[in-house]
Amino acid sequence: MNDDLTRRAGWHEAIPIGFSYFGISLALGIVGRAAGISPGLMLLMSALIFAGSAQFVLISLLLTQEPVMAIVAATFLINARLILLGITLAPHFKQQSFLKTILLASLLTDESFALAINKINYTKGRLTFAWFHGAALLPYLVCLSATLIGALLGGLLTNPERFGVDFAVIAMFIGLTYLQFESDQQLPKTLQLILIGCSLVMVYFGMIIIPGRLLILAVTLVGCAIGVILKHVYF
Amino acid sequence: MSTFNYTILTILGCGLVTWLSRILPFILLKKFNLSETVLEYLSFVPIVIMSALWFSSLFTQHLGHLPTVNWPNLIASGPTLLSAILSKNLLVIVLVGVCSLGVIRLIAGN
């Protein structure tokens, strides 16, 4: 990585992100198709949401026919971290026009954020619209095409449940839980383990009174509050 | 409402809130600042929601009673978690998970 802030440089530096998105989006397309969502709708979903973990959650909630508002609220909660990324990144783009700001913000992901924060170390804090748009557009295009390929391939599998395909979403959550635990530098590991434990207890007992996926929202709202309190009292 | 309309409405709603989460900080930042407490609260969201989604799949709900354990999902979680620790690669994790449950169903004969 160097101080080159052209679109071409951004595009080039985003190739590793493109590779990782290809695998995730392919799995997403397959899982979506297995859940009965058409390739066209899967493509629309990736085009409009463009956030892997949230889309896996969305598919599982669609599968159990949760109320629209509950799913939208859950998606907002999962993607709320984008607000944090935006707040951190925005000062570096203050000189951009309103339209360009919206365009570059629309393609913000965890990975393009990480790349941009890394890039700043080489450019004395400067970032350009051209560079970021190149760096974010490549993963976006990869995500769209891999989602479509996955959805089309997924249709070739008959009775996918027999092969355990319905476990793909759950496996994704296991992976995301672990990767979050592993890569989060902000929260102490012990605190994260305690919260995972709290989540297990709340899910188990919450199932007595709160139906289906609404439970996830309730557990998250309470769990985060517990996290804030524990962090202040013990950490 | 048809399944198609339900799905498309949900996708549009989710797309809208995600897009707003992306662009609003860039637009509003000059005027407002989130309090430290809110930022801290949000930092716990990923770990809690991801683990809760996993755990909810390990049980079968019976409203009014304690849930029962979903053994196939619980057992398949073992190799899946191990593959997460070893590979740190989402595609590998998903493949191991799917194969694990497939093998368990094959052995259990359903």
What does it look like?
- Chain A: Its main location: membrane.
- Chain A: Belongs to the AzlC family.
- Chain A: This is AzlC family ABC transporter permease.
- Chain A: It comes from Lapidilactobacillus gannanensis.
- The complex is a heterodimer of chains A (235) and B (110).
- Chain A is mainly alpha-helical and 235 residues long.
- Chain A has two domains: 155 residues, no CATH class; 51 residues, no CATH class.
- In chain A, 73% of the residues lie in helices and 0% in strands.
- Chain A is built from twelve helices and no strands.
- In chain A, helix 2 runs parallel beside helix 9.
- The longest helix of chain A has 26 residues.
- The radius of gyration of chain A is 19 Å and the shape is globular.
- The two termini of chain A are 37 Å apart.
- The model of chain A has no long low-confidence stretch (mean pLDDT 86).
- Chain B is mainly alpha-helical and 110 residues long.
- Chain B folds into two domains: 33 residues; 77 residues, no CATH class.
- Chain B is extended and about 60 Å long.
- The two termini of chain B are 34 Å apart.
- Chains A and B meet through helix 2, helix 3, helix 4, helix 5 and helix 6 of A and helix 1, helix 2, helix 3, helix 4 and helix 5 of B.
Report a brief summary of the structure.
Chain B: This is AzlD domain-containing protein. Chain A is an all-alpha fold.
Strand numbers in spatial order across the main sheet of chain B: 1-2
**Strand content range of chain B:** under 5%
Shape of chain A: globular
Mean pLDDT of chain B: 88
Descriptive keywords:
heterodimer; A: 235 residues; mainly alpha; globular; B: 110 residues; 2 domains; two-stranded antiparallel sheet; transmembrane helix (chain A); cell membrane (chain A)
List the helices and strands and how they pair.
The complex is a heterodimer of chains A (235) and B (110).
Chain A: H1 7-13, H2 15-34, H3 39-48, H4 52-63, H5 68-79, H6 81-89, H7 98-106, H8 110-119, H9 129-154, H10 167-183, H11 189-206, H12 214-234
Helix pairs in contact in A: 1-9, 2-3, 2-4, 2-9, 3-9, 4-5, 4-10, 6-8, 7-9, 11-12
Chain B: H1 3-28, H2 36-43, H3 45-56, E1 59-60, E2 68-69, H4 71-87, H5 90-108
Antiparallel strand pairs in B: 1-2
